[in-house]
Amino acid sequence: MFDGLKKKGFQVLALHHGEAILKHDMSAAVQELEAVLGDIAIPIEELVYGGGGEGELT
Question: Cα–Cα distance between 3 and 5 in angstroms, integer?
């Protein structure tokens, strides 16, 4: 589960029975999360931009 996200560099940790619950009871939510997170791209400029918390990302 979440193999596509892991290949993109996301670190996924499922505690206790979280993975089983998501896989069996909330599979549509898992697909939606993978689709949304898989399309995220943050330009490096946004990560290194100064501005004291007033940059667009913050």
Answer: 5
Q: Tell me which residue range forms the domain holding 32.
A: 3-48
Q: Is residue 58 part of a domain?
A: no
pLDDT digits (tens, 9 = 90+) for 10-47: 898 888 888 899 889 999 999 999 999 989 888 887 77
- Contact in structure between 46 and 56 (CB atoms under 8 Å): yes
**Count of positions (residues) in the chain:** 58
Structure tokens at 21: 């619950």
Q: How far, in Å, CA of 14 to CA of 22, rounded?
A: 10
How many structural domains compose the chain? 1
- pTM of the full structure: 0.60
Do the domain assignments include residue 57? no
Cα-to-chain-centroid distance, residue 33: 7
